[in-house]
Design goal:
With 175 residues, the chain is α+β, with helices and mostly antiparallel strands. Strands 4-5-6-7-12-9 form a 6-stranded mixed beta sheet. The protein is globular, with a radius of gyration of 17 Å. The protein is built from 3 helices and 12 strands; from the N terminus they run E-H-E-E-E-E-E-H-E-E-H-E-E-E-E. Helix 2 packs parallel to helix 3. 21% of the residues lie in helices and 32% in strands.
């Protein structure tokens, strides 16, 4: 069996009251959560993690490990479906942006950037992706790409009412 030392869970489908018992049952040394309790990160030695920032839509950790040449900041995201609420996410992430460390921003952004990231439903409007592209430019991060399925979310409706989107992604800086 693998000896997993670091796990992040988005939408754990369990209440915050259960995080400690789940951490202990899974054998992790520590657990962190965002403000709304829908992002959990479990970690054990040799990982050392400290919270850089948290909100209802994200959790940012500085992560150290003996195999890493220096610490890195990892921001886990579970963005709101509301454009207005996502604006507060972008600002919070910019506040957590490291000056000279590697930075990964990963998770469910609840927004797409281009027409190829959607199938079904209303046609893609270019304005829909502008907010994420603006954040990426200001934060100096880029999409790391992906392997696997083109889409990461589906509304599970039947036939012509079905919509597929790529909402999950990994953004990294060039440091």
């Amino acid at each position: 069996m693998l000896d997993v030392k670091f796990v992040a869970i988005c939408e754990p489908k369990a209440g915050m009251a259960q995080i400690e018992s789940i951490q202990l049952r899974l054998g992790f040394d520590a657990a962190e959560a965002n403000a709304s309790g829908d992002i959990w990160v479990f970690h054990s030695s040799p990982f050392v993690c400290s919270v850089v920032g948290r909100s209802s839509q994200h959790l940012s950790l500085q992560v150290q490990h003996p195999w890493l040449p220096r610490p890195l900041v990892v921001s886990f995201v579970h963005a709101s479906c509301s454009l207005e609420e996502r604006q507060t996410l972008w600002q919070a992430l910019l506040t957590n942006k490291p000056n000279s460390l590697p930075w990964c921003v990963c998770g469910d952004f609840n927004v797409i950037m281009e027409p190829q990231e959607k199938r079904g439903g209303q046609p893609f409007g270019i304005n829909k992706g502008r907010e994420l592209l603006s954040f990426m430019e200001e934060a100096a991060v880029f999409n790391a790409g992906f392997t696997g399925s083109t889409f990461t979310w589906c509304n599970n409706r039947k036939r012509r009412a079905r919509i597929w989107k790529r909402l999950d992604r990994l953004l990294i800086n060039g440091v």
